Amino acid sequence: MRGSALRWTLSRGVAAIGTSVLGCAIALRDPEPASCLKGYPVSGPSSKVVHELSFGVDPKIAVDFTWWLATYVKTLLQLPGMQGAKLLAPTAPFAPKPGVVFVLGGPGAGKGTQCSLIVEKCGYTHLSAGDLLRAARSSGSAQGQMIDEYIKEGKIVPVEVTVKLLVDAIKESGAQRVLVDGFPRNTNNVSGWQQVVGDSLTVGGVLFYDCPEEVMQERLLERGKTSGRTDDNLESIKKRFKTYAMETTPVLQYYEHQQLVHRIDGVRPIDAVWADSKAAIDKFEACFAAATKQPISVHLYSSNDPPTAVAEVVARVAKAATQKFGEGAVVVSGRELAIQGSFKAYGYEELRAFD
Ligand SMILES: *[C@@H]1O[C@H](CO)[C@@H](O)[C@H](O)[C@H]1NC(C)=O
């Protein structure tokens, strides 16, 4: 019977990528919401609603969880209206990605001080895009020589090259949490990042130290007295402000649109600014924690007659998973997929037969 259930599932065109966990009508396959439902013959019990449950699972328990879930789904199928279920698992093996935080702010806004504090107190690794470029050029490496050539010939170094340098440094550092200081400073930097990195790293967000020019200017002139930096004089300070404002404003707008910017008032004393930096880091950490969980999802097919609300299903499964695996090991969310028309999912009676 079990074998025939699996065949039943497969015969409806569901590409199984693993063995069916229970040998019942649950197939492991790529997450491909809704599109896998097309082409089901419209006969027999029709499903009008798909509840998609998304789990983020601690990779250490992912295998146990998957087995448990396959059994637990059968409990969910006892709920009113439920007709069938399918377990969707990712094809690629899961590897946690390093988490990256971008740090922006005008010259003298206090970025450097806050970065040091984050490194010291939160264990982040600090990388400065500018320093890396300078280091690569003086190292004589193949990549460094290439960059040098470009600069000597007065050509602009392709952004892919410089971003690759940054990404290699992040990966080579082996760090799980990285502050990238002074990047992305313009929209060209952003597109280079997207091309090279894609989603191989998780960007938690942007720390932006906001400070009026008068304050930054005063700080830089003060620093210029002792820093020995030739560019800490009034004329080049004004020039740096201008470039900065012109180039970085669109970058901030871009990330603000994605609600990734933490704007921090950098005028206040270091301790007050630090309190805000720390709060932002805590938020980024929550985002990174979610990204270090293995995604697993389930589709539940329901006649919606009578309906069981997706929120209720989520609450049940979350409670059961916490009881089984402990607090925080599994996060659950759910949504109702919009289905146009109705389709046949899995025959309720056929499913029951395999319990
Ligand atoms: C960002 O853009 C600047 C200005 O075009 C460029 O000099 C720099 O190399 C870029 N940074 C990276 C890491 O690509």
Automatic annotation (TrEMBL):
Annotated keywords: ATP-binding, Cytoplasm, Kinase, Nucleotide-binding, Nucleus, Pyrimidine biosynthesis, Signal, Transferase
Entry binding sites for a ribonucleoside 5'-phosphate: R134, K155, I156, V157, G182, F183, P184, R185, R229, R240
Molecular functions per Gene Ontology: ATP binding; CMP kinase activity; dCMP kinase activity; UMP kinase activity
Any one biological process term the GO annotation gives: 'de novo' pyrimidine nucleobase biosynthetic process
Domain remark text: Consists of three domains, a large central CORE domain and two small peripheral domains, NMPbind and LID, which undergo movements during catalysis. The LID domain closes over the site of phosphoryl transfer upon ATP binding. Assembling and dissambling the active center during each catalytic cycle provides an effective means to prevent ATP hydrolysis.
GO CC annotations on file: cytoplasm; nucleus
First-listed, main subcellular location of the protein, grouped into a coarse class: cytoplasm
UniProt EC number: 2.7.4.14
Family annotation (InterPro entries): Adenylat/UMP-CMP_kin, Adenylat_kinase_CS, P-loop_NTPase, UMP_CMP_kinase
Start and end residues of each stretch annotated as LID: 222-232
Keyword Membrane: no
Family per similarity comment: Belongs to the adenylate kinase family. UMP-CMP kinase subfamily.
Cofactor notes: Binds 1 Mg(2+) ion per monomer.
Keyword Chaperone applies: no
Positions of ATP binding: G108, A109, G110, K111, G112, T113, R223, R268
PROSITE patterns: ADENYLATE_KINASE, PROKAR_LIPOPROTEIN
Catalyzed chemical reaction(s): CMP + ATP = CDP + ADP; dCMP + ATP = dCDP + ADP; UMP + ATP = UDP + ADP
Entry cofactors: Mg(2+)
Assembly description: Monomer.
Residues that hold CMP according to the record: N189
Protein name, as recorded: UMP-CMP kinase
Domain of life: Eukaryota
